[in-house]
Write a sequence for this structure.
């Protein structure tokens, strides 16, 4: 099963670029191609909601490499969400992140 996260923001165009660049950087660190997919956005009441899906290969590298050592949370899915959220934040993104599926 591929992890799926819902990202939300009020500044979709700017945030989409930040998220894209951050995830491409994570792909390079993981040495994975096609490690993520950003789904089309749903615009609602001034907010944009869009999904971020990680590939199983990228997930395996993140999990086995020790990247998530400092990620806090109860259970693996919450730790993964916190890791991705902090990683995006470290690259300048201010999206809100929510676990949808894992």
């Amino acid at each position: 099963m591929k992890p799926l996260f819902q990202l939300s923001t009020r500044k979709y165009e700017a945030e989409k670029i930040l998220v894209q660049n951050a995830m491409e950087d994570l792909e390079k660190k993981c040495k994975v191609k096609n490690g993520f997919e950003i789904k089309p956005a749903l615009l609602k009441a001034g907010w944009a909601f869009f999904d971020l899906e990680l590939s199983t290969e990228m997930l395996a590298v993140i999990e086995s490499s020790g990247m998530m050592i400092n990620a806090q949370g109860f259970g693996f899915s919450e730790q993964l969400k916190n890791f991705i959220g902090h990683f995006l934040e470290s690259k300048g993104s201010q999206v809100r992140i929510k676990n949808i599926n894992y």
Notes: The CA atoms of residues 2 and 56 lie 6 Å apart. The mean pLDDT is 92. The chain has one domain: 4-101.
